Amino acid sequence: MGAGLRRVAITGMSGITAFGQSWAEVEGKLHANASGIENMPEWSRYAELNTRLGGPVRDFTPPAHFTRKVTRSMGRVSLLATCATERALAQAGLLEEATIRDGRMGVAYGSSTGSTDAVREFGAMLSSGSMGNINATTYLRMMPHTTAANISVYFGLKGRVIPASSACTSASHSIGYAYETIRHGKQLMMVAGGAEELCVSEAAVFDTLFATSTRNDTPRETPRPFDRDRDGLVIGEGAATFVLEDLDHARARGAKVHAEIVGFGSNSDGDHLTHPNTHTMQRAMELALEDAGLPATAIGYVNAHATATEHGDIAETQATWRLFGARAPVSSFKGHIGHTLGACGAIEGWWTIEMMNSGWFAPTLNLENVDPRCGELDYIRGAGRRFDTEYVLKNNFAFGGINTSLVFRRAS
Asked: What residues are paired with 54 via a beta bridge?
């Protein structure tokens, strides 16, 4: 840490996922090697769509106090984000504190896009020539920064708003930018995270690239990150929120510190929008380590992005191998709940920190036969593994050639 830079604590973490809304629920599913992947029969109307698989959040209902008046500007993605944020603020002991509403707390939040229902309303206008479905909130539900803006307004946060819409790095970008904002003394506290709602249009994006899994009759067996027999990714949904604050501030108010963020690295491939670059992936990890002032040997576990696509898995594992070899255990959550796109950095980061704190690390579900092209990393597979580590690394990579890496430290 450089002179004058603040230490950044995580004092709240909560999410809404296919595995539930509490770590106890999630941990039980991980220990049971459960899968949140389902066949989506409602997608059968799209005859040319190859995949029929998704990782939905079932039975999500906002609390009763989320009245129509305050949620008119929220589509599903913003509702997921705002509900997760309320739980995280409550866990941090800040939900009722006036200090979060006087400019000392900002928000950095992201999603790949806004709510699809709102996009559909504009699409209907363009195809029919009628504006009958458009109203004053349609754009507010559709805009790329709908999650960040709605969180800011709902909780009355008057600090910086940093929206990130960078596909699969939306959440990790948001967390990284929030960390830097506090670290450099621009805000005392930040809400940070990401959300995504499941929509057939997002599955279609990857379907056109022949990157989706088509094991439609055996959803429990896919996706298969790093596996020789993988056949593509599966889209999921959910949200997760971190509450970040200056460590001294957290200690002064007696808050529980779940972990620290000590390093963030981000860069761009600069050469292709959809083809991953193993060298810039590696450099993003190096930047995070340099920011943390740590050697690669300090990292005891790597939570991989691991989309279960051929090019993505191979490029990522080659980059990871060059930095860590077989010394740091590696696993991914996408076999469990699919690729939650703009939410994955926050959901997977939350679970990674919880595993670090408990000393038990989940395996990569469905990883049975490692693809030889994915090298000889120390993959956690079959069953979870117990070990202690002070530092973990979380990677995410996105369309546009965007790479992010975060380093978390176990709370002392």
From this structure: 38, 235
Angle at 340 (CA atoms; ends 336, 343), nearest 5 degrees: 125
How far apart CA 207 and CA 202 sit, in angstroms, is 9
SS3 state at 195: strand
Comparing C-alpha atoms, which of 63, 43, 64 is closest to residue 52? Answer: 43
DSSP 338: -
Residue 152 neighbours by CB distance under 10 Å: 21
Is 168 marked active-site?
yes
Report how far residue 371's alpha carbon sits from residue 230's, in angstroms, rounded to the nearest whole number.
9
Strand ranges in 79-197 using DSSP code E only, listed in sequence order = 105-110, 161-164, 189-196
Residue among 173, 336, 339, 374 flagged as catalytic: 339
Return the amino acid letter for 194. Answer: G
Residue 339 appears among annotated catalytic residues: yes
Other C-beta atoms closer than 10 Å to the C-beta of 144 total 18
Amino acid letter, 245: E
Say what the pLDDT of residue 3 is: 54
Characterise 208 by phi-psi region: left (phi > 0), alpha (psi -120 to 50), beta (else): alpha
Catalytic choice (83, 168, 199, 374)? 168
Q: Between helices 344-358 and 170-183, what is the axis angle to 10°?
A: 70
Q: Is 245 helix (H, G, I), strand (E, B) or coil?
A: strand
- Domain ranges, ordered by start, for the chain: 8-410
Query: Can you read off the two tokens belonging to residue 106?
Result: 């900002």
For residue range 142-181, list pLDDT tens digits in order.
999 999 999 999 999 999 999 999 999 999 999 999 999 9
Q: Does the active-site annotation cover 279?
A: no
Of the residues 145, 305, 344, 374, only one is catalytic, namely 305
- CA–CA separation, 380 and 401 (whole Å): 27
Query: Is omega for the bond preceding 223 within 30 degrees of 0, making it cis?
Result: yes
CATH class of the domain at 8-410 = alpha beta
pLDDT at position 122 over 70: yes
User: Which DSSP letter does residue 56 get?
Assistant: -
CB 95 within 8 A of CB 255: no
Is this model's pTM higher than 0.90 or not?
Answer: yes
Tokens for 174? 């948001």
Q: Calculate the alpha carbon distances from 274 to 37, 164, 243, 270, 346 in Å.
A: 25, 19, 32, 11, 22
| Segment 202-246, tens digit of pLDDT | 999 999 999 999 999 999 999 999 999 999 999 999 999 999 999
d(CA 304, CA 80): 24
